[in-house]
Specification:
This protein is mostly helical. 77% of the residues lie in helices and 0% in strands.
């Protein structure tokens, strides 16, 4: 999110709270990226194994769950406000 604040200014408490609340989703997306990198690497070494594909599916599933949780928390906090 781009704001008018100075880019070198420290994040506000609200900024840090937003990152904290979205961290499970960020971590899950990093897991997907890691699984995709593993698949790319495996292409050069005989192809991905069934375990590599399972790892990607599980990581994608975690992203879906984490996104749903973040959306639910966001909706709940907007209702409370």
């Amino acid at each position: 999110m781009i704001t008018d604040r100075n880019a070198t200014a420290a994040p506000t408490a609200a900024d840090l709270a937003a990152i904290e609340s979205e961290w499970p989703l960020i971590a899950a997306e990093l897991d997907v990226l890691d699984a995709e990198i593993t698949l790319i690497y495996a292409e050069d070494h005989g192809g991905p194994s069934p375990l590599d594909w399972r790892r990607l599916r599980r990581a994608e599933s975690r992203v879906t769950r984490a996104a749903a949780e973040v959306a639910t928390r966001t909706a709940d906090s907007q209702r409370a406000a």
